[in-house]
Design a protein that fits this description.
The protein has 221 residues and is α+β, with helices and mostly antiparallel strands. It folds into two domains: 141 residues, endopeptidase domain like (from Nostoc punctiforme) (endopeptidase fold (from Nostoc punctiforme), Alpha-Beta Complex); 55 residues, Orthogonal Bundle (Muramoyl-pentapeptide Carboxypeptidase, domain 1). Strands 3-8-4-5-6-7 form a six-stranded antiparallel sheet. A two-stranded antiparallel sheet has the order 1-2. Strand 1 and strand 2 form a beta hairpin. The longest helix is centred in the first third of the chain and has 21 residues. The two termini are 26 Å apart.
Amino acid sequence: MFRRARVFFLLTMIMMCSVSLVQASAFRIGDQGSDVAEIQRQLASLGYDVAADGDFGPATAEAVKSFQASQGLDSDGLVGPSTYSALLGKAMPEVSRGSNYVSRRIISESMNYLGVPYVFGGTSPSGFDCSGYVRYVFAQAGVYLPRTADAQYEVGYSVSTDELRPGDLVFFSTYEAGPSHVGIYLGNGDFINASSSRGVSVASIYGGYWGSCYIGARRVL
């Protein structure tokens, strides 16, 4: 009964975190669509060097920062309600994002720490263990996971190897039986993880050591 209650609690928490991210409160780098194009057109009309292509990239973020500075707003490059209102003179619409956006952000974030050394119990860019690394990367995207690999194995739902997609968690039985190691699936059979031998690095789930101890995957997005 306790185990079932714990699983229900974890699933509820991850769903709440995912919803909070999907219903984000600002337009930012990586967003696309007609709302972004409208922001860009208004920036261009004010003399900022930005193309109205509907793709919120670094150039748009820099233009937003300059506009914010001119208005006495925090220059963070994010178009939240205050910036949107100052720029377009109306209330900001809801920013909707699907799981693909979140997955892309997680994959991009995960690659920022390649080469960081393995540290048992490590939870920061100065040193990670496997679950500390996964938890840290997901937290940067606003998705909060439990601390240990076995607890992370209880979140989300199981997916087969044939169904794997970027952002899924992949698990291995290493120094003890059960899910004792975890990484983030990147695609094409590759995953990124904090291993005791190589630190944060990319490896394949097929063949070799990892293939021999792979036990399954979970989807939390």
